[in-house]
Amino acid sequence: MAAEDLPSEFDVIILGTGLCESVVAAACSRVGQRVLHLDRQSYYASNWASFTFNGLLTWIQEQQAESQPDEVQDWSGQVEEGEDLIYLSQSDSSSISNLQVFCYTSEEDEEDDTPNTTEEEKGGGASEATEAADSNKEDEEETEKQEAEEQVAQDEGAEPEADQPCPSADPNQSEPVKKKKISLAQLVKEGRRFNIDLVSKLMYSRGSLVDLLIKSNVSRYAEFKNVSRILTYRQGKVEQVPCSRADVFASRQLSVIEKRKLMRFLTSCVEETEDQQAYNGRPYLEFLSDQQLGENLQHFLLYSIAMATEDTPTEVGLASTRHFLRCLGRYGNTPFLFPVYGLGEIPQCFCRMCAVFGGIYCLRHSVRCLLVDKDTNRCKAVIDSRGQRISCNHFVVEEGYVDAERKQTATPTRCVSRAVLITDGSVLPSDSDQQVSMVTIPPVEAELPSVRMVELCSSTMTCMPGTYLVHLTCQSVGSAYEDLSPLVTRMFHTTESSDQEERPSVLWCLYFNMVDGSGLEVEGHDLPSNMYLCSGPDGALGHDHTIKQAELIFQKILPEEDFCPPAPNPEDIIYDGENGNGNSAEGEELKDDELKDDEEPKEQEEELTEQEKEIKEQEEEIKEQEEEKEEEQGLESEKGQGLETEE
Amino acid sequence: MAIRELKVCLLGDTGVGKSSIVCRFVQDHFDHNISPTIGASFLTKTVPCGNELHKFLIWDTAGQERFHSLAPMYYRGSAAAVIVYDITKLDSFQTLKKWVKELKEHGPEDIVVAIAGNKNDLGDIREVPMKEAKEFAESIAAIFIETSARNAVNVEELFQKISKQIPPLENPEVDSNKSFKLTQQPPPSARRCC
Known about the structure:
The complex is a heterodimer of chains A (about 650) and B (about 190). Chain A has about 650 residues and is of the alpha+beta class. Chain A has 18 helices and 22 strands. In chain A, helix 1 links the parallel strand 1 and strand 2 (about 35-40). Chain B has a 6-stranded mixed sheet, sandwiched between helices. Chain B: It is a lipid-anchor.
C-alpha cells in the first residue's frame, strides 16, 4: 500500500479501464507483453463502471462539481533531444451531460428502527444530490407520502397476492416485509446492494463478447443470468413477446393462426431468399406488412425481435432478426445474458486476466504528457501524474483523455440518453418476482425515439430486495430528461403521473446523456503513430463495436500474435517442484493449452451444423405444433435445471 | 459426497507470502523465488469436511494490491477471505486494518475472515507480537493463526479452520433463473428454441 514507484519501462501503457482498453490489456499481457494499466479514477471501468447507490451519489456530485482548471506544469526538463511534448486532457467530465436527479420517496423512514447505521454512509452526500435536483421536492414529498399510503391501501384491497407491491423474496433477508414505500434513507443504508451501471447493454449469447469471454477463459471470473423475458410496450400496456418456440406455443395472446404464421416467418427468415432481396433498401416494415402477419406479429417482429424502427432497411432488419434467432436457446429462452453484479464486472474481469499474466495496475494515476520522437512520430515515453518518465513501445488511451482538437470525429457528436430508475415493482408482475426483462418500446410520442428498457431484479445483485433497477437507453434527440421522462411518466407512478393506475412507483431516478462512442476511429488522428484511441460505450445493445475495436488495436500492436488465447485451467497449473523453475513450468502449460485451442474450432463447427439441423427439425415440427404444445412446456422447465451445470 | 465450491480470496500487502501459502497448501511446495503469481487465475484444492467435500477456489490478488487497485469483482461471492501479514514486518500488520475495512466495504456480508501471520519460521526477527495480533483477530471475530509457508507449518490448519466455519449449505434456491458460468460447451440440455 506504500507509495511505491512504478517500473520505468513497459511494452504497452494503457490509460483508462473501460471495456475496450481492458480487453486490449488482457490480450497484450496474455501473450507476454509488459503492460502498465492506469486510470485517473479511483474505480475501474471508466464510463462502463457500475456503482453502489452511495458510489453513484458521489459520482453524481463529481459530475456536477465544476471541473478544476488544469494545473499546467512544466515538464520540459524531462524532454530529451529530438522529442516533442503532447499534453493530455486532465478532466473528463465532457462525456456526461444534462445530469438530473429526482427522488420520489420520502427522505427518511419515520419508523426506521435502526437509525444509527445510516449515519456514516450518509456523509456521501445523498441529500445534497437530491436537493440540487429538485427545488419543489418538499411539497412533492408531502403529496407523495399521502399518495404512497393511498397506493398501499389500494394494493392491499385489490391484490391479495401481495407479491407485487413488495416482492421481498429472499428468505435469508432478515428485513421484515414492509408495505411502506422504501425511503431514500433505506436506499442509502442498503446502498451496497446496488450495482448501478452507467451503460446499459446486454450480451448476445452468440455475440462477440460472449465468444471472447469463453475463448479466453475470462468467463470463469464472472457468473451470468439469462434475460428471462422480452417485453414490449404497446397501447399503454406491457406485453410479453413470444420469441422462443416454447413461448410461441405457450402464448395466450396469439391465435393458432398467428402462431403458425409466426413460426413460418421465423423459419423462413433464417436463410436469405430472393424474395427478401427484392426488398433491399426498402423499409423492413414494408417487407413485414407484405407478409400479411397482422398487427400483433408485425409489432413484435419489428420492435422486439429486429429491434428496428420504422425506417430500418429490410436487409438490416433481417440481419438483426437472424442474429436474434441464432442467439436463442444457447443458454435460455431469450437471446440475452446479463452478468451478475452488473456489466461493470466485465472490464474488471479482463483487467484481472491482464494482472494474472503480470500486468501492473494503478488507479488514481494518470499520464500528464507524452514524449514523442520528432523523426518517427512515435510516442517513446510518458510522464505520469507523479512526474515519472516511463518508456513504452505502444500507448493505448481512452478518447476522454485526449483533447478534442487532436481527435478526428467524422460526424457531429452523437449522444445516448440514459435514465436509471429504482422502482418498487416490476412493469409486468408475474409468478416469479425475479425476472430479468428486456423491454422494447416504440416511440410513445411523435418526435421521440424508441427506447430500450432493461429491468433487473434483486437476484442479479444489482439492487436491494424489494426493488427493481430499471435502465432506459435511447439515441438522444433532446436531453435525457426530454427523451425519456414522458415514457417514465406513462409506465411508472411518479408525482408527475396524472392517474392512479396500478403501476410500479419510481423511488429514485437519474437522467443523463453520455457521448456515443461509435463515431470514433482507432487511428487517423493528430497523434503519434503508435498511439491508439479507444472509444467509450456506444449506444447499441450489444458489445460488437467495442470488441472489434479492441481486436483491431491488438492486431496493430502485435500483428503476429493470437488474440486472447485461452488461459490455462487452474487444475492444469503445475508448479514444477523438481526443476524449481516456475517459468519453464509455465512455458509447458501454455503449449498444452495451444493444443487444446486447436480442438475448439471443431467443436464450434459441430455446434453450427447441429444448429442447422435444428432449424430443419423445426420446419417439420411446425406441422405438429398442437401436439407438441404440452411437451414444450415440459422442456422449458428441464432447461432451467440444465443451466446449473458448470464446466 | 457433495462437493461445494468455496471461493477464498487472499488479501494483504505485497511480499507477505500470500502466494506461498496457496502454493504450500495446493502443491505442498515452496519456491524461494516465486515470481509474483503468474498465469494462475485461481488454484484449487479439495478437502473433506464432515460429510461434505470443500473445493477451495483460492484467488490470489495477481499483484493488483500493489498499488492499491484491487477490483471489487475480486471479492464477489467469496465464502472466506484470508488476510495475510508478515510477522517480521510491523507495517504489514498495521495495514491489516485497512484490508479489513476494504473487505467490509466490498466483500459479501457473511464472509468468513481469517488472519494469518506468515513467516513464523523467522521468529528471531519478529516485529509483531502474537498476542497483539490474536487480540485484534478476536475483536473482529476472525480466525487467527500463525503460519510458515516455508516450513509447512499451520497452512493445512488454516484452511481446516476456515472449512469448519463455513456455514452449512442453505436451502437450495427456488429461483429458476439461476446464475451460471459460461463454458466452452453450452449446457447439455440447453436445447433448441424457436
